[in-house]
Amino acid sequence: MTILQIKNVTKNFDDSVVVDNISIDINQGEFFTLLGPSGCGKTTLLRMVAGLISPDSGRIFLDGKDITDLPPEKRPLHTIFQTYALFPHLSVFDNIAFPLKMAKWDKSRIVTQVEELLEDVQLVKFKNRFPHELSGGQKQRVAIARSLVDRPKLLLLDEPLSALDARLREHMHIELVKLQEETGVTFVYVTHDQQEALALSSRIAVLNGGKIEQLDVPTKVYSKPKTYFVADFLGKCNLIKAEVISTTNDAVTLKIAGYINLEVKCEYAANYKIGQKGWYSIRPEKIRLNREEVENTDLYRAQAKVLGYYYYGNDTLYEIELGDNLVLKVMLGNTKSVEPKFFNEETMVHMSFDPHAGSFIAEEL
């Protein structure tokens, strides 16, 4: 069931179009993420849903009701920003209870509701502490609990974890997903962090220049990007110039880098014409390197020269060169129990990958 509808919303600042005719339907109980670089329009869109700014055109519906012209305090939703905005003179318990007291809930009901949320965010033993006695992660959990205590229809989160260190952010990812699943409240989350978006979301809208480049589940956005921007922005990706040389109902044959022919499964293969230009995209972890040639004939196989490598602990990123100065990135996992043995610079290796592990991105005409 759709809980939030954004219909043809546009917002201009001075002479710049910040949000350009965007339409999105968000379902009840989703963890929906708006992802993109700074200035792409994601925070502006969130602020329009919150009622903090008004769209120049378009309408916003929450649970079937038009809220476009409602003031923020009349909207059945809450917003969490990068700052925690906790009341310094109130305890953790009273900070969380504040919305319920303003709504004049019965005292015993307030206690029951707050105690339940304190359990959910693992802050029971901190309930009598004040904000200055808490860590950054604990403050963030208090802010989230306060926003969820009266079970809003929608919770908007504008880069709420950006001030936390990497390890604490990762811990908060797990807690956020658990809280969202336990409460059933729909989350709309804004971030520029690709890994965060992939880890948290049920669906992701990738924004660029005020427009949606792709809206899909995380696995599709990552492995089957629809535009050059999405492939390049979301993690590491090899993007190789390609041209369609033949098509079937479910696959295209591409000439990549001017000399390699690959057949690639493609959902919209029949829509492409011979001569259509674009890129073949394949993620570095989909490529394998071996000292000996792989016998599997279903794979594309070639010899390559190692240009260098970068050790990241769990993984090692290699740069390899095929013929005609084609350079690819390859990510190999360091999964063995022994210390990894690297392919050194100038070493010749056997490279292989399944062509169907990549995808064709057509050039926009």
Mind summarizing the main beta sheet?
Answer: 6 strands, mixed
For the record, the CATH architecture of the largest domain stands as 3-Layer(aba) Sandwich
Beginning-to-end CA distance, first to last residue: 36 Å
- Name the helix and strand elements from N-terminus to C-terminus, one letter apiece: EEEHEEEHHHEHEHEEHHEEEEEEEEEE
Structural class by sheet pairing and helices: alpha+beta
Outline: globular
Radius of gyration: 25 Å
Specify the CATH homologous superfamily of the largest domain.
P-loop containing nucleotide triphosphate hydrolases
- Name the poorly predicted regions: none
* Overall pLDDT score: 91
How many strand segments? Answer: 20
Look at the structure and give the CATH class of the largest domain.
Alpha Beta
Helix tally?
8
Count of folded domains: 2
Query: Which percent band covers the strand fraction?
Result: 35-45%
CATH topology value of the largest domain: Rossmann fold
User: How do the strands line up in the largest sheet?
Assistant: 6-7-8-3-9-10
Commentary on this structure:
By secondary structure, the chain is an alpha+beta fold. It has two domains: 2-228, Rossmann fold (3-Layer(aba) Sandwich); 236-362, OB fold (Dihydrolipoamide Acetyltransferase, E2P) (Beta Barrel), CATH 2.40.50.140. 23% of the residues lie in helices and 36% in strands. It has helices at 42-50, 92-102, 107-120, 136-148, 166-183, 194-200, 218-223, 228-233; strands at 2-13, 16-27, 31-35, 57-62, 65-66, 77-80, 154-158, 186-191, 203-208, 211-216, 238-247, 251-256, 260-265, 277-282, 288-290, 300-311, 315-321, 327-333, 348-353, 359-362. Strands 6-7-8-3-9-10 form a six-stranded mixed beta sheet, with helices on both faces. Strands 13-12-11-14-20 form a five-stranded antiparallel beta sheet. The protein has a five-stranded antiparallel beta sheet with strand order 15-19-16-17-18, with no helix packed on it. A hairpin with a 3-residue loop joins strand 16 and strand 17 (315-321). The longest helix is centred in the middle third of the chain and has 18 residues, at 166-183. The mean pLDDT is 91.
